[in-house]
Amino acid sequence: xxxxxxxxxxxxxxxxxxxxxxxxxxxxxxxxxxxxxxxxxxxxxxxxxxxxxxxxxxxxxxxxxxxxxxxxxxxxxxxxxxxxxxxxxxxxxxxxxxxxxxxxxxxxxxxxxxxxxxxxxxxxxxxxxxxxxxxxxxxxxxxxxxxxxxxxxxxxxxxxxxxxxxxxxxxxxxxxxxxxxxxxxxxxxxxxxxxxxxxxxxxxxxxxxxxxxxxxxxxxxxxxxxxxxxxxxxxxxxxxxxxxxxxxxxxxxxxxxxxxxxxxxxxxxxxxxxxxxxxxxxxxxxxxxxxxxxxxxxxxxxxxxxxxxxxxxxxxxxxxxxxxxxxxxxxxxxxxxxxxxxxxxxxxxxxxxxxxxxxxxxxxxxxxxxxxxxxxxxxxxxxxxxxxxxxxxxxxxxxxxxxxxxxxxxxxxxxxxxxxxxxxxxxxxxxxxxxxxxxxxxxxxxxxxxxxxxxxxxxxxxxxxxxxxxxxxxxxxxxxxxxxxxxxxxxxxxxxxxxxxxxxxxxxxxxxxxxxxxxxxxxxxxxxxxxxxxxxxxxxxxxxxxxxxxxxxxxxxxxxxxxxxxxxxxxxxxxxxxxxxxxxxxxxxxxxxx
Length: 594
Prior knowledge:
alpha+beta; 20 helices; 4 domains; three-stranded antiparallel sheet; Serine Threonine Protein Phosphatase 5, Tetratricopeptide repeat; 40% helix
């Protein structure tokens, strides 16, 4: 038996002395197939991410593949107040959110963030899969059960490698189409050993061919498994079927996309009936949901964009970092009849309570996973979550575009029956049917990592292509107060739908090409900040504060502040809201006059 001592050699495109950098892994020793299983679990799958607060400061652990959420048309910045952005997400994601040529550059050019974190992690995991695949066949087994375990490990490794290359190709390569097949995508690395050569980018076709080769082998290996291991955190045959349906959909192979969506649904077809839910206090996306097929990585998005909702000295601090965009809110055309406006996105009536805006106005926030309720690990991923709902949508789109409109309507009808209070019969045909499926996909899969990739592929779809103009905004805060705001526009068929390779990669390995993403500047923008209705108690306090401020200014004293603030006419025990409204109004009035 061959034994491995020493290090796992990992492909790392970074600013280091060698193209391939070695990672020490505790002198690991592979002796059996179970060792390779542990290696795959530890370094092939993405780790769970979390947001936590050591020493009262916010920290993010294992943050990967977040940019897709910020580039699409699903989120817009909360421009009223910067107090809620305790993780500095708006500044960190500026380059991605505003589609910059150099996504790591901050708005004022005075700082940078790493562009290659996702790239490095993906290739690290890919090379772990390469190593497992290089060694798995030579591991000895004692019986049929152990031989099936070997096949499972091999199937999971090829599934993961295919998934990573598919993701990289859709970030850094042109969307798959007959005109883009020979355009550059990303480098393919399939060997576990260091290769002393100048790497170049493989084409879109070459990467997709490799993805399908991996997924075909994964299907062969996983199809003989009787039950998934550690559901939903390890890949199984249902996940494989769903991933193949997705890849074929992107390749515009409608027949195969429909076939594999149906295969996935034959294995698992459950849908969560939103009509049967009693309330919206819990998370909709969970590991135990009847819809969950596979999940990898953490759910950092929910807490990143909305973590501040608590009472402080009687006042509500309710300050998201990003609100649900108008694009996404208006996509829910049926309003309250669509229960996803209660469980997927939620309208909060009392957004505000920060540095300047002491009262509140309505705003829409993300609610599939409630990031404001608690920190730490969430049950499912924000980007690599596979659900049966996607299988219904993949199958419906593929069937409609392949002329099987009856099958498309039936799949779409079943999904809508579980999402709407009153689900009318689906009767559309032709382009109207395809448009309805596209809108249902926008609504159903919102903020699960699909939308950016969907917008890319819609542009190049040969039948009923679709593209749109997207506007994003950025607000610079001075402490917590808005200082200025800018608007950025992504035009239809904009070349910025494809990311440039990370700056660190291009600087170190110039054989991989150049950054051809266009430069993009913003225009001045005045955010539409709703004016909240102030209570009578607030205005009473405001007038008292103005008088106190003027008195102190004229007499060069603090007597007005000390005397008048103690004259609050409301009792905190009897009317807490009015008591605090009066105090807030007093402080605002005093500041204005003094």
